[in-house]
Amino acid sequence: MMKRRISAVLKQAVCILLSIIVIAPFYMVLINSFKGKSEAARMSLSLPAEWLFSNYAEVIEKAKLWQGLGNSLLYALVSTFIGVILSAMAAFVLSRNKIKLNKFLYFFILCGLFFPINYVTLIRVLQFFHLNDTRIGIIITFTGAMIPFCVFTIYNFISSVPTEMDEAAVIDGAGPLSLFFRIIVPMLKPTMVTCFILQFMTVWSDFLTPLYLSSKSKMFPMTMSVYQFFGKNKNSWNYIFADIILTCLPVIIVYLLGQRYIIGGLTSGAVKE
Amino acid sequence: MNVNKKKIYPQWFIVLPLVIYVLFFLLPSILGVGYSFTDWSSKSAKTGIHFVGLKNYIDIFTSNKNYVQGILHTLMFTVVSNIIKLIPALFLAILLNESIKCRGLYRTLFYLPSILPFVIIGLIFKSILNYNNGLLNAALEFLHLGFLKQKWLSDLGVVWKSIFAVDAWRGVGYVMTIFIAGLSAIPSSYYEAASIDGANFWQKLRMITLPMLKGSIMINLVFGITYGLKVFDIIYVLTNGGPGHATEVLTTYSFQLYSTGQYGMSTAMNTVLLIITAIIGVGVVKMMSRQEG
Amino acid sequence: MKNKVLALLLCLGMTVSLTACGGDAGSDESTAGGQDSSEAAGEAGEEATESAGSDDFAGEELSIIVSADWMNDYYDETISRFEDTYSVTVDLQTIPADQYSDILQSKLETGTCTDVFWIQSNPFAIASVIGNPEEYCLDFTGEAWEGIMPEARLSSCKYEDKLYGLQIWHNSPEYVMVYNKSLFEELNLTVPKTYAELKSVCEKIYAEGITPWFMPGADGWQHQLAFFQIGGVYEETDPGLYEALNNNTAVFAGNEKMLEVLGQFKELSDAGYFGEDWIGTDSSNMANEFGDRTCAMAMANSSYVKQIKDETGSEDEFGMFLIPLGDNDTFPTNPAGPTMFGYAGTEHPELVREWFRFVTTTESLQEILDNSGKYTNLDVTDENLEQHWLPEEEEFMNTVDKSKMLTPVLQTGTKYTNDYWMDFGADLIAYCQGTMDADTVLANMDANRAAGAATAGDEAWQ
Question: Nearest CA of chain A to the CA of B290: how many Å?
């Protein structure tokens, strides 16, 4: 009993220590986002001489953050949602029906992990499909780029879902779609949510792709806005920091929401065993 | 059984993702690789693009720039950064998979660094690691550890360590998240049974956790290797390949070539990288999948 | 189970649709905001509207792509007046500086460029950056606004006698030594004119525990200014050097004056006069360093004096002098600057032409100057423009002999040099750390320039 207690305390101590290391820079960003311009440039941890909550209001207005937020959410949510579902379907078939063709396709898709993006040829391809300079073009590009990641991840997790369940479902008369969505997806939830969280963040922080693929500032994502406050020798650190806090919030919310499904997956799995 | 399989695992499930992947990712990338055999440059608008065969590749290995050193740095970064991220992340994931207090909070906290944009990571850490008024050296002085003070980003013997540390700070939570997903798929009854048999932590780790986690380990390894070989941002924002050329990697060289208008050469450099990455990546996957079978 | 899946799908669907709505609402709001500000500014422009009386462009959109820090908000008032005058909208796209040239390049290449684009121009840049002006740029030859640019600036706007660009930039001293005058007076120091004097000044300041010359090496683009801004001194020592460098009949390697300057730079670095860890320090805290008196000098623009005072409330007096490395006494004349071009593939060339005419009216120029807060003057020949030279600038300019203002700085006076700015900076640091020798630094620049020339198909290098 005593031993368990000590180990629990130790574990907490480790977690708290690590948390401090992780949080210190975030605290620095947060506290400096309330300061004046030159005070923020010192990037110290001390409290602001005067709390400038107005920095946030100014950033939202100057950087047109609402518009950027709308774009970013649209790109990240839609592309990731479609990407994860499609990848799960592909990974499901690839891993359950290991015929030669599918083994090849698995490695074929896997190779996508290694290729670098070339924006010039990408724009040319999108122009061919008349998708350049459209939101759909941006979303489909993101989806295409995440498929290798998601297929690879889900493929390697799907083996932990027992095949007996497929057979049972089919005997009950379920078609492939209903087998997939009713039996497999719920079992794969922790994996799919993990993929969703990681890819949501990837899309969220990628401001370059929309920048290359659109010719109107109306289509720029939220993460672009922070660059307006950079300049040679005259960076507005307080605005930069406030902007960063606002840009990070949606990702944190998605992670917190996703958390539940990952933990939920564990307990439901355990109950079934 | 075969007919049955075709029915319950229909091939058309693969078609849509495959089409999107091929058209909007693979095709442009492969077309891009084609440029590495041309003299594509900022001047091409006027002179057109010509096929030059392997000239760019030969230039890479015969240039006055130390590109070979860049390749070695890239490989070194890949090995070291993966070791220092994967192992701690695994133990963190195990720790946070137990019913420890506030584990949801900790998981979120440890993930937080990976959502910060690189520019911001760069400027925060350049400030923290500053010799004169940086937070780290100040903290060391405060703890009477002044002798540990370093010129973190400019001392040639320390700069790589600083990069590794910042990279780990940023990346451990990401790796951990994938491990947690893997751990959550291990039925807790396995551990209960092992506990009844009197297994200790290390025995459980070796007999249950590691074998069951093989999928996640492979995923993390492949992502880690790809990330390491393609590493650019973290170095770009912290040192931009410096001080001098001490931390140049393949991608920082390729970036310089691109920004001076030598697009063909830059794509050739990326293609070298692609080949190295693909060989190692596919190798890892094949090796680990074989063990499974 | 079914319900759960359905619920999940529904939830996501709702989030997506909400997002889409959110996006729309967001853009509505921002346009509304834009209108507000333009109305406020609009009154001044009403007269212009009537006189122009042109609704030919009504409803069109003029798009502009620009790197961060080239337009900032200086043009906002002029833009909204333009919008009101012609009932058009202007879509200003500010791109992060380190991504800008790649993005512009890909947009030109794929034919997706905005109506107006900017480049950092110099007399060689149209050829090397844009590559093919005939295909990409609107030909502005014959436009009346050609006359507002002084001869030196026109050279960065013309290519093969055709006018393509408009360069509105200031003529303040750029990257000279800014120093704390009050501190110098207290320490009984005079402005150094030679390297020897500089060294002794540094020594005395260093003895006070103050960083003599703040050098933000971690920025990667600032420290090499010390070498390039004094281009005039290389030309003076070795007349005809620039031309020879451009004709590929001279090289950097082995140039004695350059080696001397590099040696001096390293000497100052080794002595700790740039600060204890200048290689690891960036410029984010530079204004505060001046304000706190933890540094005495730094290379900066004249307007930086104002910035120090504004940001830190420092009571000290500041002044400027020429960078005295290599005993330099020449002024860093630089005909380079961000320059605006019209895109040949635009759907409304007339509107673009109108925009250039509009920007070059005295009223617009005055607005840009007054709104900048950073420029003290605009380098245009418009006599009706009211300039705001700082007393510090006038005082400094009076100390420089006009004959010392003839040679442009090295990076824009010679071909392909500026393209390898960062590279040279990295080499310079390697030299200071003892991992590269001075002549290799220079030889690398030659090799790089040769690569640049090969890319451009320059005949002198073939």
Answer: 13
